[in-house]
Every structure is written in C-alpha cells, then in structure tokens.
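Example 3.2
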Amino acid sequence: MKNVVFLCSGNGGNLRFVHKCIQRYSLPLNISGVYADRKCVAVDVAKQANIPVIVDKEFNKNLKQNVSTFKPDIIVTNVHQMVSTENLNHFLDCKWINLHYSLLPAFAGHIGMKAVALARERNCGFVGATTHEVTSELDAGTILQQVVFAADWTQTDKKLSNTVFFSGAVLLLNSLLSAVNFEEEIDYTKNYCTKATAFHFSDALPLFGQGIYEEIYQKISE
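Structure, written as tokens:
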C-alpha cells in the first residue's frame, strides 16, 4: 500500500476519480491527505470522502511541514508552479506526478484546458494528456505516460474538453498504478478491462456519472 498526497487548488475531479477507483477495486493506494492553498471544491471532495485535509494560505512556505504529516510515497500536483525547488528536494524519496492536458512538450506551462484551447487555435491534428515527473523546470520532467486521440474540431469546446479531462483522469490512475507496479487481475463486469493497469476511457463514466461529468466541466470552465 502506497500513500498518495494530492496538492490541490481547484475542483478535485481527478482526486474524486482516483478515490472512487481505489474504493471500487481495492487498489493498493491510499489517499493519505490533501493539501490546498485555499478553500476549494477539492477540499470539499476530500472531506466528503473522509480524507485528511490541510488548507494553508502560506502554501509553499509550510509545504514541508504539512505534507510530511501525510507520510507520502507519491505526490500528485496540479499546482507545480507553486512548489519551490527546496520543497521538491525535501521529498526526493517520493515520486512526484503532474497531469498536463496536452501532449508535452507541446503547450508546456499552460494551466488546465488552456492547452486544449491553444490546440484548437493552431488546428492541431491530435490532442491528449500527459503525466510526467515533476522537476524544478515547469512541465519539463520525464514523461511517464500519454494518451492521444485525433482532434475533431467540429465538436464543441465542452465535449472535447470533457473527453480530454476524462482521458487524463484514466491516465493519472494508470500512472499511479505503474508507480506501484500493480498488475493484479481484477474481475470486472460489463465493459471493464481485465487489468487495473489498463483502465480505459469507458471506465471513467460509470465512476463519475453523467451528472458529475457535466458539473466538473462547468466548474473548470469558470
């Protein structure tokens, strides 16, 4: 069992998805804590799931002390730009993972769905998401995994962003499972795949539900 800590500042969609997967499939991951720089939806998600939470406006200054209480093995962050090199170095024994909504190195440095918007502006043929190791240089760490699909620019921004978002959630879960070398066979029902290391896009929908699917898009679009 590995402890995973989420550093959050937003809506907690990936946190919610990973937590639901852990519960449903008894995966060898434990979300031991959530650390946020402000009160946000991710904090509410954590509290509803009985995950320990620390909110600190002095996020970077107190990161070492606060995150250490969660005893992390893996740290997932979507606030990479807020983490100092000193704090990265303090947790060298941990695996740091960031999820970026583009095919890095394309559109590095852009937050959230901005990368998808830029891909549309430039008429890119493909879109996707990337998980990568976190280093002191923004979005420049070693690529862990990527998901890619042909861009259909006839789709609305909402539909395409939903697809990228859900694909990213599945990608993050796969990267977490790869970090713990998990390959146990799981007895899935319906259209689920046969191994936890190969979650598919279709797995995301029953875990989120259509209501949350719409709700998350609205929140990330604000």
